[in-house]
Amino acid sequence: MRNTKYVFVTGGVASSLGKGIVAASLAKLLAARGLRVTIQKFDPYINIDPGTLNPYEHGECYVTEDGAETDLDLGHYERFLGIHTSKANNVTTGKIYNTVITKEREGAYLGKTVQIVPHITDEIKRRMLLLGRTGRFDVVITEVGGTVGDMESQPFVEAIRQLQWELPEEDFMSIHLTMVPYLRAAKELKTKPTQHSVRMLQQSGVSPDIIVCRTEKNLPADMKRKIAQFCNVKPGHVIQSIDARSIYEVPFNLQGENLDGMVVEHFGLECAPEADLTKLRSFLDRLFHPKREVDVALVGKYVELQDAYKSIQESFIHAGASLECKVNVHSVRAEQITAETAPKLLGKMDAVLVAPGFGERGLEGKISAVKYARENNIPFFGICLGMQMAVVEFARDVLGLKEAASTELYPETPYPVIDLMEDQKTTTVKGGTMRLGAYDCLLKKGSLAYRLYGTDKISERHRHRYEFNDAYRADMEKAGLIVTGENPDTGLVEIVEIPSHPFFIAVQFHPELKSTPEVPQPIFKGFIEAAIERHSAQ
Ligand code: GLN
């Protein structure tokens, strides 16, 4: 068996250059040449996982099949590659220290002084090689979060430096992403930040094999040569990643720069001579040439930050493209929605999605949004907290239980239609203690969900503590809100629908986490179809 090859991707100059997208694009190109590829992210922050981070700080928390709460870049990896990642694909400084300190308490270091080098770096290296050691992959791509030179990322860069010598030369590769800014006043592209960034990396002992320059203008050949010369890499190994119309265009741009060719050659990999990107190409063609348009409201709490609902935004892009429809997503701040403002804020929308979330703020607004969509026959889709608020709204307005609530919002409510699961009532620790990861769900034959999925058994991912309270199920169903999906083992309610409404579906799970450009998520697709129908009827 051939050795697994390791690519390490670091970044410099600035954050948010799209390191995750470059890494995912390379993975996509290699996978599309027939190689078995996976991708993992090492984050320098001290939180054990991003599950406890405010979405304002760090964007969406992405959940894997096996229930890990991870960085949103893992979402990109899954969407680009169509694979499932796992706990092992996201490691933080917090996880590393946690392991080392636990081992120290167990006496595993036999009285030695525990230090960053070698103990922390050994643990980082162990994790960096973990997926490769399974033998399941030809190439493992490791993205290191943050930028080179940050205090926090130093142990990771040091671990890469050590691996540079510990791995056989032909199994190791380092890619550095920088930015070449364009100075409008001088009408010039500037290479100096790149030179500084590479120097910083080299000072830590890591030499990049390839430099990828993020840029808004094409880099002339002589500029690439200059960077190569100053930065001590092979001529030809400096390439550009130009601003793209869609993140899904980046693999094509990097293919044009021969990124995958250089990696394949460096490692001496045997694979198809060219990446087959036919499906992604046809997705992009549809995305760029829509025949229709719809306006969809995304009702949420964290509307200022795009990344807070990343997977939902992406799911709209996937579903829209598959229907040749441009989806204009309008973020509506939940707090602003009341019975009075709803017609103005939502009246022109072709569909309303109420987003997942935590905490009290904006809940009443979400309830008003549901009510408006329900009463005005606007296609409605509720996800997680959005589903819970749909249930509360129905209980209040249709069942007449005026004080119905989720106990998350109103613990003393006489009508706890959404309540804590039994095993959650005794949980006091926050991190990683929700109902997390993939669970099966059985769909009721003939329901909207059944029609959309085209099957009666599905599996979707979860991240929540509260549940539909079964005590109210019979009354709800009698009044017209029916349960169409439930967990086969526990009977927990997963999906509710109002069959008398043109399109009203709400789910306890997070369907947005499994949508990809090549396989759009069925409920999102149905939702956009319903929006198109409403749009053309008006
Ligand atoms: N806060 C709700 C719960 O914990 C919903 C969570 C979510 O929307 N992800 O059940």
| Beta-strand proportion | 15-25%
Structure summary, number of beta strands: 23
What form results from the Cα inertia axes? globular
Main β-sheet: number of strands, strand sense, barrel status?
9 strands, mixed
Which stretches are poorly predicted, pLDDT < 50 over at least 5 residues?
A: none
Radius of gyration: 25 Å
Which hetero compounds are present in the coordinates? glutamine
Q: Helical amount among residues, as a percent range?
A: 25-40%
Strand order of the largest sheet: 13-12-14-15-23-22-21-18-19
Mean pLDDT: 94
Given the structure, what is the number of helices?
A: 18
List keywords for this structure.
single chain, alpha/beta, binds glutamine, 36% helix, 538 residues
Please give a structural write-up.
The chain is an alpha/beta fold and 538 residues long. The chain has 18 helices and 23 strands. Helix 8 (221-231) links the parallel strand 10 (210-215) and strand 11 (238-242). Helix 1 (19-31) packs across helix 9 (250-256), helix 12 (310-322) crosses helix 18 and helix 14 crosses helix 15. The protein is globular and about 75 Å long. The model has no long low-confidence stretch (mean pLDDT 94). The protein binds glutamine (GLN). Glutamine binds at residues 356-358, 384-385, 408, 463-466.
